[in-house]
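Hey team,

Filing this mostly as a record. A colleague (T.K.) asked me to run one chain through the structure pipeline before their review meeting, and I want the input and output archived in the tracker in case anyone asks later how it was produced. No errors, nothing strange. Just documentation.

Input sequence:
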Amino acid sequence: MRLLVTICGLILMGILTASAGDAQPTSIRPSGFFQVRQADGRWYLLDPKGNRFISTGVTTVEYEQDYIQGTDTKPYGITCKAKYGSVEAWRKAVAERLMGWGFNTIGAWSDNAISQVDVNGKHLAYTAILGLGSGFVSEKVKGGQAWLQGLFPDVFDPDFVTYCEAKAQKSCTPKKDDLNLLGYFTDNEMRWGPDWRGRDELIIVFLNLPLHSPGRDAALKMLRERYPDIAKFNSIWDTAFISWDQAEGAVKYLTPHSTTRQAVLEQNAQVSRTAGDAAAASYIADCDAFLSLLATRYFEVTHDAIKKADPNHLVIGCRFAYVPAMPIIVAAGKHTDIISANCYAFDPTESLKVYSTQNRPLLIGEFAFRGKDSGLPNTRGAGPLVETQQQRADAFAAYARAALAQPDLVGYQWFEHADEPKEGRFDGENSNYGLVDINDKPYELLTQKMTEINQQALALHEQAPVK
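Output structure:
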């Protein structure tokens, strides 16, 4: 039986690699697991039965959800305990409600047991988030937090492979036969360049790791190969080293004076890769060459660790917080099944077009709009603010339609199920992101519009203009 399943999977993989111009039916021989395919110039997910599927999802679907910052109090959890009495009753109610609103997927940071609830013979798909890079940072750096502090894992450290394989074995192998699992996010919103967490390029960050760190050695090795003549390196990098031996012993590297670049202060602002002169262009080329090595290593190791532990499910990327440098996108396109990106904007079109250069399926892992009339402060948190819940609903509809008009899109997932506490969650966010408020009352204008668009998602995508 195992051999038969393997053979069917290989046959299916062959079908999925058919050219975009090949006309194919809306369903094919089922694999038993979610897959991706391209047909008529558009990408689609296939559900376990082989039918076309667009993921319409919601993140952070949890019984208790957020603590108030600095306390043990979870306001939404208090509501749910009083209203439903048990987590099992809440799961049943929330599964029925989400599916009634046209959602078919629960996103990152959710209670995955919701996917086990049968709603008229159907189940919600779910996506698991592994935190491979962030977990490695926490293990290696005392008190280190990849998301909050922007610490990037030293992926050149041999221990990174060991860590990823062990975590994937623990987290993925038990799920390998789960038909409701869509796939795995490797991480969330890692710092891939200058952003709100730090202004330095990652090559500078790695050059300033402790002496003999694997990542530092990898950066120096690359630079030495690119600049056999240390004088040429000095002229580009504004240094004054006598030899490469001296350069390798330097304890501090700085961004060259000839190159200054604005950090990304918002999640969707793109890092400028332009340069004012030849020296600055050479420095940026060095940065991008290192990013190519770094990203290739990250995506290869995480992909291979997951597939070794669970060959049946999709690897759906690291949820880019903003459009990163092109070498990173290229590496993601080569070593993930789906490129995932979070995009807090009114219109995701321009961002999606950059990712679509790789001709790979794309999934929006987070987006949202916040209403000023919600009674929440909305002083912390990403994403556009609008005046009213009606405008919030209209903004969702416009965004989702624009996303579905992109031929590479295979899904979108709203952030998040319930509002954040007005006092602020763990990082101080206090915004109106929810489909429901802290009292579990739905925002009806929003959920009505979501129901309308979600139910049309597949049909809208089938009309997307092809390249």
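Quick notes for T.K.: The longest helix spans residues 278-309. Residues 1-26 have pLDDT under 50 and may be disordered.
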